[in-house]
Design a protein that fits this description.
The protein is α/β, with parallel strands linked by helices. Helix content is 61%, strand content 11%. Strands 3-2-1-4-5 form a five-stranded mixed sheet, with helices on both faces.
Length: 285
Amino acid sequence: MARTQEIATQIASLTELLEIVAALRAIAAVQMQQSQRSIDAIRNYADIIRNALMEAATLVPADGDRAAAGAIVHRGLVVFCSEHGFCGAFNQPLIEAATQAVRKDPAIELIFVGTRGAQRAAERGIASTLTLPMATHSGAVTAAAHRLAAALYSRLLSGALTNAEAIFIRESAGQRPSLVTLQLFPLEVPPGKQASAAIPPLVNVKPRRLLDEIASEYMFAILEAAAMDSFASENAARFRTMEAAHENISGKTKELNRNLRRMRQEAITTEILDLIGGFEAMKRG
């Protein structure tokens, strides 16, 4: 009887856990779909700014943006991770890439975007110079990109960083998730293209200032695109993790229900046999 009550308690606990897992799975699916719908719009915006940057680059002399030879290089690496857990091994390749970067350049500054990923890295002895929160829903990705851009510009203007890259996970339909590396600065200005219009565009600001402002907007655009890619991949990983957990819990619950039914049937059979035995004993008496 005690064993039966114990199994019934386990089934009740697993049922509650199953509801929680199902809710997390549903939330991950919604966030994944919303972020995937936003990715195309952000990429289109980045392409528009990129084309404007290409045109603005033609207004500035080719040697107007050369770095001084022999300048000290301070490298940084932005690592887009998850803000929360329950996403399987999503952070693992990112932490491994950060570990390799530290081995190659011990002075590199690591900027983690995602508290959970930074904690996992710290457990492996990889300390971050700066940790920023990652978005927890698709509508907050732009704000996360703004925070990151402000932090990068601050370190760039102070001279703490001269070179920076970003790594994130990108997941495409029908393909395995891949690790993407993105050059942030020095910003790789696309080669200028010949103007197709007979009349050149009207420019009301100095070409150098125009190029700098467009370059700033372009870097923010690629940061936002990287953050949205990472957020979509994180929720896809969380959905798969919750789906596997849901199947495992469902299977365990079914197994416990079968055991409970068998034990109850055995108890009923034992009671019937005891009644029959007692009735026979009364007849003999």
